[in-house]
Design brief:
SH3 type barrels; MetI-like fold; single chain; six-stranded antiparallel β-sheet
């Protein structure tokens, strides 16, 4: 044992054990997130529960959402703890019951069976509704045959989705473009007025353009009102609840409906992938507790791409200067130490710096110099996409600098001297020999920086990310990428849904689903880094030897 210890074998086993435990924990976490995230899209069975308690006697149609063991003090014997198994039921029908989730003691459930003929209605407001379809009314006609009812409802919902797509195009596309042009006209007129360049002819031109846009707006508003009128005439479904009460539900409030207890495996699988598609392409609803994450995906990728454009040249140029031009000495050592220490600064500090310098100093002065005609409404003097990208570029800059610097240090000196001996300048040697061979290290550092930026939340909360946006930062209005706009982010969406939601239980599945999506994005970027690095390393291996 003494010999084994003296050779340091125990440290090898200790390190291997620590790595193994870390790997198991990471994969366990990923497995838990995947299971709970993907289960959000699977159609779960709905049961009918009869509950008998001292305070209530009721019948619920509900989905089993979770279980727990509640420990409490026995009221009859103080100091004695009792344990009680409880089931979290998703009863839905929020506007009727007040709550769509409730904990029920397991021993209070007197009977449990699959709810026959029950349908789940996903709605644009008030969450899901669990009910049995009785009839369907459309255009004054009442349909009682359930087979015909379901077919007619599906065809009407297809029309509803088509109408809503047209409404989205009109409201966010055409009307949004008109509002944008009207706003630009107002700003341009104020700018010319401040400079004393506003003439009668220019005012007449502005008025003519404004009248034309207002006319287009009125025409689009007429079309929009007609589409909303068509939505209201799609029909009404008559349903009965678990207590026998009858309700009327307008089809314009329904996203889709399904019968989970009657679906076979193929139908459930198709529903599963359709739900994932909706999750990726739809907008969030009900305070981010339902719907999709499309604006958050667009915001995340836009911010990361802009951050990449900022951090890549800064990091590469800084590393080239330190390795190829700067003289070794105490100043350069201090700079290297500072860069390494900068990598350990908490991310929220970068957010405070971005808010204080980029927004309140740089943005304020930009507004004073170039956008004074827009004031007092700030353009760049408020958190936005540009400042978020710059803040994240500063946060990830040390990673790119260190990675590039290490790659430059591995290039043999003989290659530099050979290039100079052949008559090339130092700049040509760097650009044509040294930098291409350093590309694997540069790409590795860059993708690691992207992966970190995609997962950071704290600094973004101060410099541009918001809960909901009315317009995407990338749209058809010039300049197409609006650097002054606020945006949504997957990481902040997880935080908001998990900790700021008024209905935590309803948001919990969406939190896991969004977390899984964010993990997949980061893992994909890291795998891409490894593949790019390996290919480039093979490409330049012969030069290294």
């Amino acid at each position: 044992m003494k010999t084994w210890m003296s050779k340091g074998e125990h440290w090898v086993w200790f390190s291997a054990s620590a790595v193994s435990i870390a790997v198991v924990l990471v994969f366990g976490l990923l497995l838990m997130i995947s299971a709970r995230g993907l289960s959000h899209f699977w159609p779960h069975s709905i049961y009918e529960f009869k509950v008998e308690q001292a305070t209530e006697s009721a019948v619920y149609t509900a989905e089993i959402h979770n279980t727990r063991v509640r420990v409490f003090e026995d009221p009859q014997n103080p100091g004695v703890s009792l344990r009680e198994n409880q089931i979290l039921l998703k009863t839905a029908n929020r506007e009727i019951y007040g709550l769509d989730f409730r904990w029920i003691p397991e021993n209070a459930i007197t009977s449990k069976r699959l709810a026959e003929g029950l349908s789940v209605f996903e709605r644009y407001e008030h969450g899901d509704m669990y009910a049995v379809i009785e009839a369907f009314e459309v255009n004054g006609e009442r349909i009682d045959d359930l087979v015909l009812v379901k077919d007619r409802m599906r065809s009407q919902l297809a029309k509803s989705h088509q109408i809503r797509q047209e409404l989205r195009h009109i409201e966010r596309g055409l009307i949004g473009n008109i509002n944008y042009q009207l706003e630009q006209l107002r700003f341009e007129q104020r700018r010319l007025e401040q400079r004393g360049q506003l003439t009668e002819q220019i005012i007449a031109d502005f008025d003519a353009d404004r009248a034309r846009l207002n006319q287009e707006f009125s025409e689009l508003e007429t079309v929009r009102n007609e589409l909303y009128n068509q939505l209201s005439q799609l029909g009404t479904v008559i349903v009965s609840l678990a207590d026998g009460a009858e309700r009327r539900l307008g089809l314009d409030h329904v996203v889709r409906f399904w019968q989970p207890n009657e679906m076979h495996l193929g139908e459930k699988t198709a529903f599963f992938f359709g739900s994932i598609k909706n999750f990726l392409l739809d907008d969030p609803r009900n305070a981010n507790t339902e719907g999709g994450v499309f604006p958050a995906i667009v915001g995340t990728f836009t911010m990361v791409i802009l951050m990449t454009l900022f951090v890549m040249p800064m990091g590469i140029l800084a590393a080239i200067y330190m390795r190829e031009y700067a003289k070794e000495g105490p100043v350069l050592k201090l700079v290297r130490i500072s860069i390494n220490n900068l990598a350990g600064v908490p991310s929220i500090v970068f957010g405070i710096f971005g808010l204080g310098f980029f927004v309140y100093v740089l943005g304020y002065n930009i507004d004073q110099m170039f956008y004074s005609h827009v004031l007092p409404n700030p353009t760049f003097g408020t958190p936005g996409l540009l400042w978020a990208a710059l803040t994240m570029a500063l946060l990830t800059l040390p990673v790119v600098i260190v990675s590039t610097d290490e790659g430059l240090s591995r290039i043999p000196r003989s290659l530099r001297e050979g290039g100079l001996a052949l008559g090339a300048t130092k700049l040509e040697v760097i650009l044509r020999i040294v930098l291409p061979m350093t590309t694997p290290a540069i790409m590795t550092g860059l993708i690691l920086a992207i992966a970190r930026a995609a997962g950071e939340v704290a600094p973004l909360m101060l410099v541009g990310v918001v809960k909901l946006v009315s317009e995407l930062p990338v749209n058809a209005n010039p300049p197409f990428v609006h650097l002054d706009q606020k945006f949504m982010h997957l990481g902040f969406h997880i935080f908001d849904a998990g900790f700021q939601s008024p209905n935590v239980e309803a948001a919990q599945p969406l939190v896991y689903a969004t977390s899984l999506l964010l993990v997949l994005v980061i893992v994909t970027l890291n795998l891409g880094a490894i593949m790019i690095r390996n290919r480039l390393r093979e490409k330049y291996k012969s030069l290294e030897h």
